Amino acid sequence: MNITSTEKACPPVLVVVGGGFGGLSAVKELDGKPVKIILIDRSNHHLFQPLLYQVATAGLSPADIAQPIRAILRNQENVTVVLDEVKEIHPETREVVTGDLTFHYDYLIVAAGARHHYFGNNDWEPLAPGLKSLEDAVELRRRVLLAFEVAEKAPTPALREAAMTFVVVGAGPTGVEMAGAISELARFTLRKDFRRINPAEAKVILIEAGPRVLPTFDPTLSESAMNQLKNLHVDVRVNSAVKRISEGEVQVNETVIPTRTVIWAAGNKASPLAAMLGTEVDRQGRVKVNADLSIPGHPHVFAIGDMITATYDGGKPVPGVSPAAMQAGRHAAKNILHLIQREPTEPWNYFDKGSMATIGRNAAVAQIGSFKFGGLLAWAAWVFVHLLFLIGFRNRSAVFLQWIWAYFTYGKGARLISGPTGRWGILTLTKHDS
Amino acid sequence: MNITSTEKACPPVLVVVGGGFGGLSAVKELDGKPVKIILIDRSNHHLFQPLLYQVATAGLSPADIAQPIRAILRNQENVTVVLDEVKEIHPETREVVTGDLTFHYDYLIVAAGARHHYFGNNDWEPLAPGLKSLEDAVELRRRVLLAFEVAEKAPTPALREAAMTFVVVGAGPTGVEMAGAISELARFTLRKDFRRINPAEAKVILIEAGPRVLPTFDPTLSESAMNQLKNLHVDVRVNSAVKRISEGEVQVNETVIPTRTVIWAAGNKASPLAAMLGTEVDRQGRVKVNADLSIPGHPHVFAIGDMITATYDGGKPVPGVSPAAMQAGRHAAKNILHLIQREPTEPWNYFDKGSMATIGRNAAVAQIGSFKFGGLLAWAAWVFVHLLFLIGFRNRSAVFLQWIWAYFTYGKGARLISGPTGRWGILTLTKHDS
């Protein structure tokens, strides 16, 4: 950063948009390299997204799975971190524009991720929020915990039952995790906390439009996951499409379910920045990148992570998971070094290390290569891998202790309702004496 | 809760308003006693308020110092916890009214605490928020951390300096803690995080209307605290009155200080519920209780904690600290048992165990009986006492580990900016290239 142009040649400027797994991996790959990096993110923290559902269900605190981006990169001298939201990208003039500032770049990596996809029903978002950011997780935690409070005060059995019904839409990994974790919260953690309701009577309903849960996994694992969900008393409904969401109810196929808590885990849509790159996007708004991860027509612009669509091993779609984002980030960084040295870029091939989804205590599924397994062993593997990945996060030991503690006590450490509790949402309570 | 009136006489109903140190101590004292307790609080958690400044300065996470009230009382069968905000108290008809519900009581303990006192300048509140609740702490943390982000992007030296100026109003224990903690955050934790600013150049200004800091402590300790604050580069200004607070500046005496972060720690005002008890209140809205902590004219209604004014040892005012609230809570509970058994109530006498205020790492003051000391010894005593009091909080070990870690690394674990970061408040940034 202290290079004066009279002494040395100015290094080229790389702007990286997004400090998630993809963007951060690209930046770290370029540590010590002759490039000036500007990393722009609209939040000040990097998020360990695979554990976000734990914050939403009060198992972990926000700070346990988030780390300030500045702190992560404090010793990497060729990076400037900017807290700001990118509004526009202009590949023709090589400019990135935030609300206040304009950044010129020589190279660009866009790693802006994805948000939820409501398939044309954007009015459902406030009624059925999803889970992508810490703010999402804290909001879901507030809704889930408040639902039990509302049930405890509900004046009629019908209102009580609606308050204690939780509908999770979409049975991918996030939906399965949320459904399992809410059921465990109700059946174990909150068991003795209330006087008028029995939290174990909570109904958790998992809705899936397709014929099986975890559709990206092997069918035998879908069946294993289905059985493990049933053991956790989750009511799984496949071949079920959400037709309507309104205050106080969800219509699934022809059935109307009264509920005050709906969680959306049914689909992703790429960041709107994808559409600003001036190239083709698919139905989920994802950029169709070249083999080397650059954008068609703009060899100095790269896109990575959940906002791209790519294939590997001759046609299989790359999944929207953190290992894929990290591999792509490192690969894009290497290709930028090639370009700086006037060498040809290399095509990216995703290396699949396997997939896992956790369902609850001792309950998970995993497929690693041709090995497919469920239950306690898969759960142990899931815990091991997630602790391993938390390396670099200074809170790893705190998370580990929290998990050990929670395993033996079923206690949840972060059961805070943030924000207003005075408004009771859709349930109107009538006066009654205690 | 399972007593049927045909088998046993119905126990009397005690309503407790507020689950802070006072209310919770009263409830716990009545564990197993023949009284049906309804504890009403507007938040779902009990807060370890003495460490709230640590959340506001990113040292601890909200969940580290808060515990769900339901979890604390889950095994005490004679308590029902209600999450609701009390709007009205009617001592004549023995009713407590929330938004939705009306509760009849035989006995009442009001322990609703205090909020900030702006001495008639309530329009200062959004510009200079105080520190009483977790929401307050998260908001202050957001403002403090965001100030450095704004400074990093500021286009002119004047705007940068304003962004890096922090004004704390009021040099009681909270003001001293906040000033010291912000200075340490800037000088140590954030030291290497920025590229354009040097966080150590932040100015922390502590404003006190009176002639010395920590006015409730012995004058020798005020002087010790003053020196310790100076060592931490805090600019302490005594005999300084805030005349005006507006967006972007504070006027102190005749001096105008440009700043975007003002923290209010200058005074307390009792909960508005105090005025509903139909008895005399002092200038800070605090109830003048009888010697037995009951309300004049209502021997079955008790008030405790920060919302009362009381004296001890022949005229000294009882301080607004947690040990006083806890002692009063237990005493009010015992007096209610006396009333139930048709015995006379007993007067309360506060037992002063001493006072401490922390300033920073190795910096504090303490007076315990006739012992008065400052510096490392006082700081060690402060840490010891606060860890001791955290017993009962299941997060004690996590907090302890966090402290040990922070002590050796100067790292702050909870450096999250929650909520919107897109709006930059009072500083308008003009376009400029990176």
From TrEMBL, chains A, B:
**Which stretches make up the External alternative NADH-ubiquinone oxidoreductase-like C-terminal domain?**
353-408
- Write down the top EC class of this protein: oxidoreductase
Q: Boundaries of each FAD/NAD(P)-binding domain copy? A: 14-329
- One Pfam match: NDH2_C
Reactions the enzyme catalyzes: a quinone + NADH + H(+) = a quinol + NAD(+)
Q: Which residues cross the membrane?
A: 373-393
What does the sequence similarity comment in the record state about its family?
Belongs to the NADH dehydrogenase family.
Return the protein name. Answer: NADH:ubiquinone reductase (non-electrogenic)
Key word Nucleus present in the record?
A: no
Organism equals: Terrimicrobium sacchariphilum
PANTHER family, per this entry?
EXTERNAL NADH-UBIQUINONE OXIDOREDUCTASE 1, MITOCHONDRIAL-RELATED, NADH DEHYDROGENASE
Has keyword Signal? no
The stretch of residues making up the signal peptide is none
Q: Which GO terms describe its molecular function?
A: NADH dehydrogenase (quinone) (non-electrogenic) activity
Give its E.C. classification number: 1.6.5.9
Instruction: Give the UniProt keywords, A-Z.
Output: FAD, Flavoprotein, Membrane, NAD, Oxidoreductase, Transit peptide, Transmembrane, Transmembrane helix
Identify the InterPro entries for this entry. FAD/NAD-bd_sf (IPR036188), FAD/NAD-binding_dom (IPR023753), NDH-2 (IPR045024), NDH2-like_C (IPR054585)
